[in-house]
Amino acid sequence: STPHTLTDNEGRLVTVLAGRPADPSWHNVVSNVNTSMVHARVTGEENFFYEKHRRGEFLAVAVGISYGGGQPKPGNLLLPPTKQEIVHELLNNSDIKWISGFQSSTYLPFYFPKVYEDYATNLFPLYEHSPNLQPNFPNISIYPTCTFNFGPYTTTFEHTDSANVAYGLCAITALGQFNLKKGGHLILFDLKLVIEFPPGSTILIPSSVLRHGNTPIVGEGSGSHHMSFTQYCAGGLFRWVNYGFQTARSLESKPRGKWLKKAIDGKLADRTASALGLFSTMDSLAKDRQAVFGRSFKY
C-alpha cells in the first residue's frame, strides 16, 4: 500500500505506483468489482462483443467522452444497446465509482497537481460549453473516458496510447485473480522496468509517450483471470477547447484563422517545455500543491 514514484533524469515525477488505499474495506471493493466485471464479460460474450484490437486479444469496452478518429465534434462514445446496458450498470456500481475516485482524486492531484489543474482548465469549460456531454463519474473523477478490460486474460502488446493527452496520466487498476509473482506484470519498455502489479493496485503512467504492456498470467484455464480498469483523456478534447470549441479546419477557415492556429499551437519546443513544466519534482511538489489547491479551485 506504500506508493512509489519514478522520476526522469531531471527529477520530474513521471510515474506513480500508487498501490491501494489503507482502508480495510478495499479488499471487498475490489472483490465486488471483480464479480461485476466477470458477470459483464459473460453477458457480453453472449451478445458478441468480443473484438480484436491493437492492444491485444481480450474483451474491452471504452466509454465516455472522446474526440478524434473522424468525429466532427466531441461526444460520448456510441455503443450498441447490448453494450450500453452492460456499461450503464458498471458506471453506476458504487465500488467502481470508488476505484474511479481513488484513481482521480487521490494520486493524480497529489503527485501531479499542475497536470490535474490543466485537465480542469480544459475540461470544465468544455462541459459548460457542451452540456450534452456526459462524464462517466461526475463529481467523482476528473477523467472523461474509461475502459473496462474484461479479459479474461488481459495481456497487452507493447504500445503507446498516442491519442491521449501527451502529458496526461493514464490511471490503471489491476483486477482479477492471478499469481502476481508469475504474471500480470506491467512492463515499461523505455524505462527497462518490469513491475509486479497485484490485483486491486493502481499505477499512473504517461501512456501517450511511455511504451508499455503487460505479461501473461500463469494458470489460464484454472480459475485465474486478469482484468483492468483504466481512465484517461483524449488529447483532441483539449485542442477543441483551445481552438475555440471548433476543429482546426474550422478555425483556419476564418479570417486570420491560420495565423490564430499557428499562434495557439506555438513552436514544438515551447509546447514540449510547457508540458514538461507541468510535472513536479519532489522538491517543488509541496509548493505546486499549494499553488494549485491553496486557492479556491472547482473540483
Cα-atom radius of gyration: 19 Å
Strand content: 15-25%
CATH architecture term: 4-Layer Sandwich
Which fold name fills CATH's third level, the topology? Double-stranded beta-helix
- The dominant shape is globular
What string, H for helix and E for strand, traces the elements in order?
A: EEHEEHHHEEEEEEEHHHHH
Helix content: 25-40%
Estimate the mean pLDDT confidence.
Answer: 91
Q: Supply the CATH class.
A: Alpha Beta
Low-pLDDT sequence parts: none
End-to-end separation in angstroms reads: 26 Å
Structural class: alpha+beta
**Distinct helical segment count:** 9
Give the number of domains: 1
Number of strands: 11
Strand count, sense and barrel status of the largest sheet are: 8 strands, antiparallel
Q: What strand order characterises the main sheet?
A: 1-2-9-6-11-5-3-4
Describe this structure in words.
By secondary structure, the chain is α+β, with helices and mostly antiparallel strands. It has a single domain (4-293), classed as Double-stranded beta-helix. Helix content is 36%, strand content 19%. It has 9 helices and 11 strands. The protein has helices at residues 26-46, 81-91, 94-111, 113-129, 235-242, 248-252, 257-265, 268-276, 285-293; strands at 4-7, 13-19, 59-66, 75-76, 145-151, 170-177, 186-188, 193-195, 202-205, 212-214, 225-232. The strands form 2 sheets. Strands 1-2-9-6-11-5-3-4 form an 8-stranded antiparallel sheet, covered by helices on one side. The chain has a 3-stranded antiparallel sheet with strand order 8-7-10, with no helix packed on it. A hairpin with a 5-residue loop joins β1 (4-7) and β2 (13-19). The protein is globular and about 65 Å long. The chain starts with a strand and ends in a 6-residue tail after the last helix.
